[in-house]
Specification:
The structure holds two protein chains of two kinds.
Chain A (H helix, E strand, L loop, with lengths): L4 H16 L7 E10 L11 E4 L3 E10 L2 E8 L2 E7 L2 E4 L1
Antiparallel strand pairs in A: 1-3, 3-4, 4-5, 5-6
Chain B lengths: L2 H30 L8 H8 L18 E5 L5 H10 L2 E6 L6 E6 L5 H9 L4 E6 L7 H4 L34 H4 L5 E11 L23 E3 L3 E3 L5 E2 L12 H10 L14 E8 L6 E3 H16 L4 E6 L1 E2 L5 H12 L3 E5 L22 E7 L18 E4 L3 E5 L3 E5 L2 H18 L5 H9 L2 E3 L11 E3 L1 H4 L2
Parallel strand pairs in B: 5-9, 5-11, 8-9, 11-13, 13-14, 14-15
Antiparallel strand pairs in B: 1-3, 1-4, 2-3, 6-7, 16-17, 18-19
Helix pairs in contact in B: 7-10, 8-9, 10-11
Chain lengths: 91, 468
């Protein structure tokens, strides 16, 4: 199933709220920009994850909550939390 | 010299004259009874590239027309037929796409130079020249000359033939067209594409896909059980290795999209067998364990008799796995080359290794990416000690899901270029060991200034050199 930019942002908001154990309404969208990522894991591979080394067009999503900025990365196939507390996660 | 010797020499000379006269007559008879000439596809391919071939003036083949004549515009075909008949000649062929040119055959067995002179003097003739023999044997005719396929999107494949299209640097390519004068590949060579699977129904790939031979037992995996590996292997769940992402199909097309089929593109190999292996999911990522399972599959099939000699690995991460390194070495012990992407993080792999391309196994060839200007791609990793070679990897057109074609960039795209060249080498030298194959690849580059201090070879792979 192809993910749209709007869906990606919404999925990211919900995921961040869940990780922070807060209400999704408390997560603000700071910026969403087009980006080229270095691989098919969007430069956010999990431990023990190999990915295709193809440049991948997607979106860099920056969200704000609890006074901090969090980065998510997404493309038409997936949404990922980038270095959330030092680790990457597939959403 | 005594009298007896003189007689012996005279007798020998007389015999030689008789033999020569008889041979000439035989040739004349043979030409007169020659059936209409059929030009097979292979010969037409050579004809298609004649414009760029510097002709060697070697002896004509028996049966070829003696001269090519361009008649002036307005000279009718009847007039041409009459002119040739008056000279005991005939029009062998009208040359397509070259208005006014006729191939003229002579029944009197006159030499081409005499015929050219004769026709040049006719007022109806604009130009005449001998029908030189085109010989693609390098020893006789100099360096190999290019062969151009008739695949409609070939002009967009700058990696194979860079004519400066879209502002690129002319000649910044892998010299595929010259390599093809030597070989366009072999269906005896099997290349495993370890990736997201391959769309084996793609119309530009289907003829070059590996199928498990009927007599070969299906694969048995200790965890997945017996698997119907008719089309390859899916390490994720043992099901069909059909591609659900596109990445693997793209890599497969670079290695071996069918050439000269008048569809889409041409692969580095026009003929080859692509073995699809799926270990990455629809998003383009997979686990180390599944990569290991897939490599084990390749080794098993090799032992079962499949001539799989190359694994093309357009993937990786910065995490080192001892188990993955060990199975790649096991592939080496089974004479299998492992071509791997250097990675796309613009970093020096000597300091920040990228795996599997950085494993210290003798069969690993790490590949960096070049753009159409012969510059190292802005995203490409490098490494004077750890990255072996560079190949085109930016804006590479290849096959995609659903009979489509897309341009993609990455060391993912450079990797199958090198895998493809390795397959061409094996088409010419089937018995070559994996050690020699790697040596041959690394010795077959064009030096690129931008790669000095960036890769082991400091060069771009050159397919034509690889076949010398």
């Amino acid at each position: 199933m192809t993910i749209s930019k709007e869906n990606a942002v919404e999925n990211a908001r919900k995921d961040l709220a869940k990780r922070l154990k807060i209400d999704a309404g408390d997560v603000k969208e700071k910026a969403v920009e087009d980006a080229d990522f270095p691989d098919m894991a969007l430069g956010a591979s999990e431990d023990d994850e190999m990915s295709g080394q193809m440049m991948t067009r997607g979106w860099r999503i920056k969200l704000e909550a609890q006074g901090q900025t969090f980065e998510y990365r997404a493309d038409k196939n997936q949404v990922r939390a980038y270095k959330f507390k030092g680790k990457n996660y597939r959403v | 010299m005594n009298r007896n010797n003189i007689f012996i020499h005279l007798a020998l000379a007389f015999v030689l004259v008789l033999v020569a006269a008889f041979a000439g007559q035989l040739n004349k008879w043979r030409k007169q009874w020659r059936p209409a000439r059929f030009v097979p596809i292979e010969d037409k391919k050579k004809v298609a590239s004649v414009e760029e071939i510097s002709l060697s003036e070697t002896t004509r083949s028996f049966g070829a027309p003696e001269i090519l004549v361009k008649f002036k515009s307005g000279v009718s075909q009847d007039a041409i037929d009459r002119l040739t008949a008056e000279r005991n000649d005939r029009v062998e062929d009208r040359i397509e796409n070259a208005d006014g040119w006729e191939a003229i055959d002579d029944f009197d067995n006159a030499d081409a130079a005499t015929l050219v002179k004769e026709y040049q003097q006719l007022p109806e003739v604009e130009f005449a020249e001998p029908n030189y023999e085109i010989n693609l044997d390098e020893a006789e005719a100099g360096p190999l000359e290019p062969i151009l396929p008739h695949d409609p999107q070939f002009n967009d494949q700058w990696a194979l033939a860079n004519s400066g299209q879209r502002g690129g640097k002319k000649g910044a390519d892998i010299s595929a067209t010259r390599a093809w004068a030597r070989t366009t590949g072999s269906e005896e060579v099997v290349v495993a594409v370890l990736d997201t699977g391959v769309d084996y129904n793609h119309e530009d790939l289907t003829e070059n896909m590996w199928r498990r031979p009927e007599k070969m037992e299906p694969y048995h995996d200790n965890e997945l059980g017996t698997i119907d590996d008719e089309f390859g292997f899916n390490a994720i769940d043992g099901s069909d290795p059909m591609d659900d992402n596109g990445h693997g199909t793209h890599c497969a097309g670079i290695i071996g999209a069918e050439g000269e089929n008048e569809i889409g593109i041409a692969g580095v190999n026009w003929k080859v067998q692509i073995m699809p292996l799926k270990f990455m999911n629809a998003s383009g990522s997979g686990s180390t364990k599944d990569a290991i399972e897939a490599i084990n599959y390749v080794i098993d099939r090799k032992k079962a008799g499949v001539n799989v000699r190359i694994i093309s690995a357009s993937w990786g991460s910065t995490q080192k796995s001892r188990a993955l390194g060990d199975v790649i070495r096991k592939a080496y012990e089974n004479d299998i080359l492992f071509v791997a992407a250097a990675g796309n993080s613009s970093v020096n792999n000597d300091r920040m290794p990228h795996y599997p391309s950085s494993y210290d196994s003798p069969n690993v060839v790490s590949v960096a990416a070049l753009d159409r200007h012969d510059a190292l791609a802005s995203f490409s990793n490098w490494g004077a000690k750890s990255v072996a070679i560079a190949a085109p990897g930016v804006e590479i057109l290849s096959t995609w899901l659903g009979n489509e074609y897309e341009e993609k960039s990455g060391t993912s795209m450079a990797t199958p270029v090198v895998s493809g060249v390795a397959a061409l080498i094996l088409a010419e030298h089937p018995e070559m060991s994996v050690d020699d194959l790697k040596k041959k690849l690394l010795a077959s580059t064009d030096p690129i200034a931008a790669l000095k201090g960036k890769t082991i070879t400091a060069g771009r792979i050159n397919a034509a050199k690889a076949l010398e």
